[in-house]
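hiii so um. not sure if this is the right channel but i have a protein structure encoded as tokens and i wanna go backwards to a sequence. like what aa goes where. can anyone help
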């Protein structure tokens, strides 16, 4: 697949440093993985996977955040996976929303995401599900189950 590619990691790093000034703000989703793969450190990073987190530091997928916070559909069947431009735009809009709205409102939004979605976590090894029900005494009860994904 990458047979004709002759560009080295060092060349990619050099090109990135030229187009990304040291004082630029790098915005994206789960950037730690990309920066680690590129063996780069950048001083100004906004990682939306860290701005919008679940309990215990678990991260939401970009697709879920775009759908819930931005009311946008990304990574759909029509695009056949990830469109890097679409993903970058969604991450930028999520960062702008967080900055404009503030952490308190985002916390409330996260609670909505948490209450309305079953989200696969940690590379599909764990799943978290929140549900609400009425108890026999007539009170409302909410709880979250997190555990290993069941394979059937």
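sure thing!! here u go:
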């Amino acid at each position: 697949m990458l047979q004709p590619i002759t560009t080295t990691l060092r060349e990619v790093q050099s090109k990135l440093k030229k187009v990304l000034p040291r004082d630029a703000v790098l915005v994206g989703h789960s950037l730690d993985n990309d920066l680690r793969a590129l063996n780069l450190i950048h001083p100004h990073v906004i990682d939306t996977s860290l701005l919008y987190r679940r309990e215990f530091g678990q991260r939401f997928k970009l697709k879920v955040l775009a759908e819930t916070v931005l009311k946008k559909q990304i990574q759909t069947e029509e695009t056949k996976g990830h469109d890097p431009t679409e993903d970058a735009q969604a991450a930028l809009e999520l960062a702008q929303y967080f900055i404009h709205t503030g952490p308190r409102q985002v916390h409330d939004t996260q609670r909505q995401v948490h209450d309305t979605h079953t989200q696969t976590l940690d590379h599909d090894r764990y799943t978290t599900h929140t549900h609400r029900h009425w108890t026999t005494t007539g009170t409302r009860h909410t709880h979250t189950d997190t555990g290993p994904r069941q394979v059937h």
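oh and Helices lie at 9-19, 31-38, 48-51, 62-68, 84-101, 103-116.
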